[in-house]
Amino acid sequence: MSFQALVTSKGDDGKVSSSVETLTDDRLPEGNVTVDVEWAGLNYKDGLCLTGAGGLVRTYPHVAGIDFAGIVRESQDQRYKAGDRVVLTGWRVGEVHWGGYAQRARVNADWLVPLPDGLDTRDAMIVGTAGLTAMLAIDRLENLGVTPESGEVLVTGAAGGVGSIAISLLARLGYQPVALSGRPEHSATLKELGATDIVGREDFLGQPDKVLESARWAGLIDNVGGKILSKALKQVKYGGAAAAIGNAGGIDLETNVLPFILRGVTLSGIDSVMQPYANRVAAWSRIAKTFDLAAYAALVEEVGLAELPDAAAKILAGQVRGRTIVRLR
Ligand code: NDP
User: Fold this and answer.
1) Global pTM?
2) What is the pLDDT of residues 93-123, one digit of tens each?
3) Which of 74, 103, 276, 293 is the most exposed place for a label (fewest CB within 10 A)?
4) CATH H-level superfamily of 128-269
5) CATH homologous superfamily of domain 2-115+297-327?
6) Minimal CA–CA distance to 20: which of 303, 325, 315, 317?
7) Ligand 1 atom having least distance to the Cα of 315
8) What is the 3-state secondary structure (H, E, C) of 22-35?
9) How far is the CA of 246 from the centre of ligand 1 (A)?
10) Atom of ligand 1 nearest to the CA of 179
11) Protein residue with its CA nearest to atom 29 in ligand 1
């Protein structure tokens, strides 16, 4: 049986490039469940894998795609049978294991999550790793005592995938999400999603730096790291909490202990990749009940496999708005 895949290869000159090829099932990697992939997602990490940046992919030829949703075609694992609707995110699929940029994938059953009622495979990829991570971050802030009554929650990298879904979920849960974005042209869209205020990236970074700054945020969901996380931490209110998700703006974090020892602020890391199964199932279920897919529709762009290399360059340049999803059928 043959299927289409976006195969990423490394040339003798070290250059990484991708092209659509027809493959047969015998090329699929080891695994006990074969899935007919219907939709995949585009994430920042996919941009790295498709361009060879960051050294995430070690073995070529490779099929990237860190998340996908589809229908089980064949299963040697008793938890799944042909016809089941499944979603996969993380576990380094698309990095060290072949991923979702193909009409067929073979994976380990432990990595799959059954799709909850209320989400189809396209919906699941609008959410994708981005939405799952946003939900996990909100769960974490709540576990650390942040409630809708605590006050505003700052979301950085707000016009990106994780940020925009975090804004939408927070608003639906009764929070006051404030969007920090470097792209003022998306302010109206972010407000429609539920942002109660917009903070411009330049304005934010342009304010004088102090060791501790005026306290404004009950919670912080940070997708960019670097100077933005450093500054935002100094503005978290007494007893507040910050969830560190991403490094779109850099991996450095220069800070001081005052937010932690004078305001009791907690900085907590979120990793969606190795997240235990039970947490994933709970998060997907909460997403299915909470996420307003209709309100998010304007932030979804569909591409085919052949358009992915261009889309990858755009996401690395911070030019993608919301979620880009990949049509496989
Ligand atoms: P996107 O590219 O969709 O969004 C990132 C956003 O960050 C951009 O839209 C932009 O927002 C902002 N940004 C980009 N470059 C810069 C910069 N140089 N300085 C400041 N802000 C910048 O990516 P995702 O939403 O998919 O992912 C966000 C981050 O989270 C990435 O670093 C990703 O690797 C990480 N991530 C981590 C996960 C985990 O498990 N911990 C899971 C998923 C993602 P704007 O234009 O609004 O300013």
Assistant:
1) 0.97
2) 999 999 999 999 999 999 999 999 999 999 9
3) 276
4) NAD(P)-binding Rossmann-like Domain (3.40.50.720)
5) Medium-chain alcohol dehydrogenases, catalytic domain (3.90.180.10)
6) 303
7) 2
8) EEEHHHCCCCCEEE
9) 6
10) 47
11) 246
